[in-house]
Write a structure and sequence with these properties.
The chain has 204 residues and is an alpha/beta fold. It contains 7 helices and 6 strands. Strand 5, helix 6 and strand 6 form a beta-alpha-beta unit. The protein binds manganese (II) ion. The site of manganese (II) ion has 7 residues, from loops.
Length: 204
């Protein structure tokens, strides 16, 4: 699956297209990281997620949603936003000055400028929907209390698009619920808002 995503994203880059990868499991991002990091030397992989996903392996596998950002960090520098849960072991693997905890970004905005200063010229964005507050995003496998609200994430994504070259993004971990359509619409709107920032209002 990782190879397949890698080949598809690479083919899109070859045609000068902009890749948007949708999950499903966060593991779908790994092939896209590989294609983006091969093409763009000066790349940062920017993660929005409740969890660090920094375990080197899980249940004997290195290809797992617990390990997504461990794989990313082998390919490019990583910045992590919205984190509010990790295993004790992962504390050793994170880079504290490149993690913006949910608690630290709650109800203030100065963190945004610190984040922008940590990004390189090219940025690939990976969004695990559990970065959002479960009050607006309940349709995900591992909801965590707290987290970003709609305008929190929209505001920072807009600022990023005005300062760096976004080279692709993915949105993962949607688990649709027939009884509550709002999260599905949120994701659709997040995708087209990000495309608007990329192609209409952001830097060219
Ligand atoms: Mn994740």
């Amino acid at each position: 699956m990782v190879e397949e995503v890698y080949n598809r994203v690479k083919a899109l880059y070859k045609k000068k297209k902009f890749p948007v990868v949708l999950g499903g499991e966060h593991t779908v991002s790994i092939g896209a990281f590989k294609a983006a990091s091969e093409l763009y030397g000066d790349l940062t992989i920017l993660q929005f997620d409740a969890h660090t996903d920094m375990r080197n392996e899980y249940n004997g596998s290195k290809i797992d949603h617990h390990c997504v950002m461990a794989r990313a960090s082998e390919m490019a520098p990583v910045v992590q936003v919205g984190i509010r849960s990790m295993s004790a072991g992962e504390r050793e693997d994170i880079q504290p000055d490149r993690v913006f905890y949910a608690m630290q970004i709650y109800d203030q905005s100065t963190w945004m400028y610190e984040l922008l200063n940590k990004l390189s010229r090219n940025v690939y964005i990976t969004i695990d929907l559990d970065v959002l507050n479960p009050s607006i995003m309940a349709s995900t496998g591992t909801p965590e209390p707290g987290g970003m609200n709609w305008f929190d994430i929209i505001n920072i994504l807009k600022k990023i698009s005005e300062q760096v070259n976004i080279v692709g993004f993915d949105i993962t971990e949607l688990v649709p619920n027939k009884e509550n359509k709002a999260p599905d619409y949120l994701v659709a709107k997040l995708i087209y808002t990000m495309l608007t920032y990329k192609f209409i209002t952001g830097i060219k």
